[in-house]
Amino acid sequence: MKYLKPLILTFVLLFAFSINIDAQQHLNFMEIPIDGKIDDFQKQLYSKGFLPETEYNKKLPFGQRAFSGKIKGRSCILMVFYTKTKTVFRVKFGYQFYSSESSIKYFNEEKDSLSKLYIYAKTNLKKEGADLKYHFDIYKSNDYSANSLGDIELILSPYKENGITYYNVMFDYVDFDNVFTYIKENPSIL
Predict the structure, then answer these.
(1) What is the C-alpha to C-alpha distance for residues 17 and 103, in angstroms, rounded to an integer?
(2) Quick one: DSSP state of residue 147?
C-alpha cells in the first residue's frame, strides 16, 4: 500500500508530461520548429547556411528579420516574423521567375511536393485577383477535428515593374499557437 501512492503519482506526472509535450508541437520549417526566440531560430538558420541581410534588416520594423540563403539549391531572401516577446510565428520566402510557364511549372511541382510531405493536411486552391494560392492546413495526425499546427500557403503572384511582368512563387509558413500570441499582443491588427 505504501508503494501505491508514489506509483499513482508517477503515472499522473507521466500523463501530464505527455499531454504537455503533445500540446507544444509546432509547425516546422526546414526541420526547425516555428517557435522559440528569434535569436535561437536565427542560430538554427545559420547552421543551415543562411546569413542575415544586415543592411536590409536596419530598414525593417521590429518583429521582422531577413536572411539570405538557399532552399533546394535556389537562392532566396527569407523573412522571419516574431512577436513583441521575440517568439517566432511566421516564415516567408519566394523565388522570382521571368516567364509564366516556368513559374506555373515550379508552382505545381512544389504543390505536389508539399502534398506528399504533409500527408495530414486539408488543402484548397483559390484565385484572388491575379494570385493563385494553394492552402495547406497542417495537422499532426489524420484527426482533422484536432487543432491545426499551422498553415502553409503556396502563392503564385504576377506583378509588373517597368513594363516587365515577373512571377513570384512564395511560401508562407504560419504556426497557429504563436500567431495567436502575436494577435493578442497586437489587437489593433484585427
Answers:
(1) 46
(2) P
CA 175 – CA 183 distance, rounded (Å): 12
Find the angle CA(159)-CA(76)-CA(55) to the nearest 5 degrees: 95
- 5 has a pLDDT exceeding 80: no
Q: What's the Cα-to-Cα distance from 122 to each of 90, 144, 151, rounded to whole Å?
A: 19, 8, 9
pLDDT tens digit sequence for 29-85: 999 999 999 999 999 999 999 999 999 999 999 999 999 999 999 999 999 999 999
If you average pLDDT over residues 6-10, what whole number do you get?
A: 34
The reported pTM is 0.82
CA 123, 126, 130 angle in degrees (round to 5)?
Answer: 145
What rounded mean pLDDT belongs to the chain?
A: 85
Sheet holding 164-175, edge to edge: 51-52, 64-71, 74-82, 88-97, 164-175, 150-161, 131-138, 121-128
Give which of 177, 139, 167, 132 is closest to 153, Cα–Cα: 132
Where does 23-98 show beta strands of DSSP type E? 28-29, 32-33, 51-52, 64-71, 74-82, 88-97
Q: How far is CA 39 from CA 26, 42, 45, 80, in A?
A: 17, 5, 10, 11
In this predicted structure, the answer to whether residue 173 has a pLDDT above a threshold of 80 is yes
What are residue 174's DSSP bridge partners?
90, 151
Domains defined along the chain, listed by start: 25-189 (3.40.1000)
